[in-house]
Amino acid sequence: MKFLVSIFLIALLSFALGLYMPWWSLALAAFVVAALIHQRAGKSFLTGFLALFLLWGILAFIIDQQNQQVLSKKVAQLLSLGEGSIVIILITGLVGGLVAGFAAMSGSYLRTVTR
Amino acid sequence: MRWIPFLVSSLITILLVYALNRPWGKAPAFGKFLSPQHGFWQNAEPADGAFDIEIESPKLKGKTEVYLDDRLVPHIFAENDEDAFFVQGYLHAKFRLWQMDFQTRAAAGRLSEILGPGEKDVLIMFDRNMRRLGMVYAAEIAAEEAKKNPVTNSIIEAYTAGVNHYIDNLKESQLPLEYKLLNYHPEPWSFLKTALFLKYMSFDLAGHEDDFEMTNAKSIFSQADINLLYPIVQDSLDPIIPKGTIFNAAGLQVKIPPQADSLYFNNTDTVSITNLVKPDADNGSNNWAVAGSKTQSGKPILCNDPHLSLNLPSLWFEMQVHTPTYNVYGASFPGAPCVIIGFNDSCAWGFTNGMRDVRDYYQIEFQDESRNAYRFNNEWRNTTWRVDTVKTKGRPDMIDSVAYTLFGPVMFDKSFTENGRTSGNHQYAVRWKGHDPSNEQLMFYGMNKAKNYNDYLEAIQHLHTPGQNCVFASKSGDIAIWTQGEFPGKWYRQGDFVMPGTDSTFMWQGMIPPEETPYQHLNASNNFGRGFVSSANQLPADTTYPYYLGGNYPPYRGLIINRMLRNMSGITPEDMQRLQTENYNVFAEMARPLLLKNIDESALNADEKKYLDIYKNWNLRNDPAEKGITVFANWFDSLEAMVWRDELQQATAPVKWPDEGTLLEQLLRDSLFKFIDDIKTPDTERLSPVVTEAFKRSVPALKEIEAGGKLEWAKFKGTGVRHLLRIPQLSRLNIAAGGGVHIINATKDFHGPSWRMIVHLTDETEAYGIYPGGQSGNPGSKFYDMFVDNWVAGKYYRLWVMKKEEANDQRIIGRMIFTKG
Question: B177–A71: do the CB atoms touch at under 8 Å?
Answer without folding.
Answer: yes
